[in-house]
Fold this protein.
Amino acid sequence: MVFTLSSNEHTIKVVLNSKMASNTSIPYSPKFILGTPINTPHNVVGMVCLESCIITPPSLFTTAILEAGTNRFDRYILDANNAVIGNPQNYWSDIGGANRFQIGTAGGPDFDIQTNLLSIQFLMGTAKNLDLTVAENLSDFLCTFY
Amino acid sequence: MSWESTPLNNPNLGTIAAPAECFNTGGQPWGTAGTYAEFTIDMLVTRLKKMSHVTFTLGCNANLNVGGTTTEFRLAGKWLKIFNISPNLNNTTEAGKYISFSSANQSPELSIQTGGYTGVSIHSSFAKSVYSCVAGTNSLTITPTNILWPIQIVSNPWSTTYFTNMNTAGKVSYFMPIMEEIEIYFTDIWGDLITDVIEFQIVLTFDFAPPDPLPEPETIKRARARYLL
């Protein structure tokens, strides 16, 4: 790989391996301190190009995703005018109370009981480390919601 | 999937419900006495094996609408990536920043991303000369980014993808006289920061070249003058 006709004279290759990072205080953003700094002479423009990469991508069912602070699965109860009644119920990480089997009856006082026995976060977590490209595994996961 | 009002021995309140059209041509609900047997897990597995990908919508059982109320479920956050929905929908209290479903309205079509990420972008700390669309709802603007290269992921999760560049296509210029440290991180196709630890080995090729010379002063004026002659 050359940038210009004369590039071979000063081309530098840098190999960055995630297992050899200099600083992993932010695990997903490793830092590499170069053993030999790369100097760009005056009056020239530095250029860099990706020559190759080997990546082992993670699944989407990981702790990092399932424990993200933005995750929500909220139940909102709206009145006839679509105004919110009470506080939203957190189905993502919480479960219903002792009366969660009682969803409520028409006109009854318990219409706002949180109903889930398991949190969505837990249910989604059952797919961690599963190879969901296998149909049986995928169906097993979907049936977890049953 | 729906929420049932009588879970009885079920470990959870959700159920999987397949459209009757999946298996029968009569359009009758599953479990119709004397006509169609109850929809079973085995039947679901059989059907799933025939699918290259699984899409579905979420709905809500009307039994959760009690006493003149309406139950609406609102979903937001990074986990929506699992369904191929942008994680930039991240606030259930702000209109347009979440997806929702109720007994009256199904959710948008969701597709479980069994194959994981389809592509990632490699970022580093030194490049600011590349311009990129801002992800999410503010995608009408273009701003400088430290993105270096987008990589297509052709493998399944936890399997290694290899990419090689046969030429200098995609080279990035930078303006830093001495480079001592390089920081690497990744974003996904939505521009969302990937906070999982990714194993990688990246080979970067550095070089430098004289910049393109600036045109001499008055060059354009001289050209125009010549044209007018």
About this structure: DSSP finds two helices and 14 strands in chain B. Residues 1-14 of chain B have pLDDT under 50 and may be disordered.
